[in-house]
Amino acid sequence: MSHFWHPFGQLYQSATAPLIFERGEGIYVFDSNGKRYIDATAALWYANVGHGRQEIAEAISVQARALAGYSTFGNFSNQPAEELADFLSARSPMPETEIFFVLGGGDAVETAAKLARRYFFEIGEPERIVLVSRTNGYHGTWGFGTSVSGIPVNRTGFGDLVPDTIQVQWDDPEAVEAAIVRSGPDRVAAVIAEPVIGAGGVYPPPHGYLEAVSEICKRHGVLLIMDSVICGFGRLGSWYGVERFGVVPDMVTFAKGVTSGYLPLGGVAISGRVAEPFKRPGSAVFRHGPTYGGHPTCAAAGVANCKILEDEHILERGALLERELLGALLPALESPLVAEVRGGTGLLAAIELRQETLESHNGVLDRLAGFARERGVITRVLGKGLAVSPPLIIEPEEIREIGVAVAGALEDLGKALG
Ligand SMILES: Cc1ncc(COP(=O)(O)O)c(C=O)c1O
């Protein structure tokens, strides 16, 4: 009986034997029985450079021995945090980017949401507080992130959430404009959107969608926050996950791939426009930030990981391999159990089962993921299907192995369901 209450896990499951992962190497992870799996989810969309990179472990070790942790409140700082902020600012699509460090994606969303409101407060428009988000969107599980979530089950049972948050249909730019107009155009602070919706089911944006939303935001003086917690650091083939759309947002939230998960780290890249009111002599202090923001050892992991992404040209692979991944999963459509296969924008994809299949038996998706696991591939149960988002170092033939395992798992499931 385990006493570990798992995130997004049912507590009764702690009575069943957990799957203990012990070791990782490249695209593979190994369980406590020594069984090897292709990590087709890059853990939770984050092991972008793959597992077991000794350079990152070494950078962590060197920093931990020198000075493991120290506050960065006020003007205290450390070399790795300075270096990582400079590195990320130099690669940002936004002018004069400042970097605010936190510990993960949920923290980053809180930071961006509060900063959007505080920015307008500082420039004399304090009534601009409304946040517009999208159905199917996922922005973490903290206060603002829960409130702007587009996944209803993640919002249920918590009482009143943050007021002045509005959801719109995920794929319709006109819905964004209508929400802005309905709220009163001088009341909306920001629109928050993922470049490709990830945890909500992998939904690439319709062609021209993000460009249209960006234009609407500009027209109404509304900030655009791109939540690139999944999409950044190569998942869509670039640092910030927005470059391919030609969109220049006002803030970008990031986490996950910034360290490939070797240590927890997240942050917000903030355009010069949004930072400006806080830069003037005697200007307001943004009274916000966690104890471990800019943690030197986490930042050292980030620096080492980002160098690997750049020097080994791993960054681009999210885009280079996107068709390969979609192509490997499309044969799943031949299964009578499958309704849809989505992907093709970045190295992430999902297969969705038919409603009748989902309703016919309990736990169908867990069984499907179990069959894939028996075939040596870790996938992720997500909404009405399975998600696949392997490390960016994966090779085309290994992607095809994932496709074969998923097709096989669907056959296994079909037989099991009779
Ligand atoms: C787009 C997006 N935003 C925010 C988050 C929350 O990040 P974290 O789990 O690190 O708090 C996630 C996590 O998957 C995410 O996908």
Offer a few descriptive terms.
about 425 residues; alpha/beta; Aspartate Aminotransferase, domain 1; Aspartate Aminotransferase, domain 2; 2 domains; 7-stranded mixed β-sheet; 4-stranded mixed β-sheet; about 35% helix; binds pyridoxal-5'-phosphate
Specify the structural class: alpha/beta
List ligands, each type once: pyridoxal-5'-phosphate
As a percent range, the share of helical residues equals 25-40%
Name the CATH architecture of the largest domain. Answer: 3-Layer(aba) Sandwich
**Number of helices, where a helix is a run of at least 4 consecutive DSSP H or I residues:** 14
Could you state the order of secondary-structure elements as H and E? EEEHHHEHEHEHEHEEEHHHHEEHHEEEH
CATH class call of the largest domain: Alpha Beta
What's the SSE blueprint?
Blueprint (H helix, E strand, L loop, with lengths): L20 E5 L2 E4 L4 E4 L2 H4 L8 H14 L11 H12 L7 E5 L2 H18 L7 E5 L8 H5 L17 E4 L4 H11 L4 E6 L15 H12 L2 E5 L23 E4 L11 E5 L1 H4 L20 H16 L5 H4 L1 H8 L8 E5 L6 E5 L1 H6 L3 H11 L2 E2 L1 E3 L2 E4 L7 H22 L1
Helix pairs in contact: 2-9, 3-9, 6-7, 11-14, 13-14
The chain binds pyridoxal-5'-phosphate.
Please give a quick description of this structure.
The protein contains 14 helices and 15 strands. With 418 residues, the chain is of the alpha/beta class.
Describe the protein in words.
- This protein is α/β, with parallel strands linked by helices and about 425 residues long.
- The chain folds into two domains: about 10-55 and about 315-415, Aspartate Aminotransferase, domain 1, CATH 3.90.1150.10; about 55-310, Type I PLP-dependent aspartate aminotransferase-like (Major domain) (Aspartate Aminotransferase, domain 2).
- It is built from 14 helices and 15 strands.
- The strands form three sheets. It has a seven-stranded mixed beta sheet with strand order 4-10-9-8-7-5-6, sandwiched between helices. Strands 1-2-3-13 form a four-stranded mixed beta sheet.
- α2 packs antiparallel against α9.
- The longest helix is centred in the last third of the chain and has 22 residues, at about 395-415.
- Pyridoxal-5'-phosphate binds near residues 104, 105 and 229.
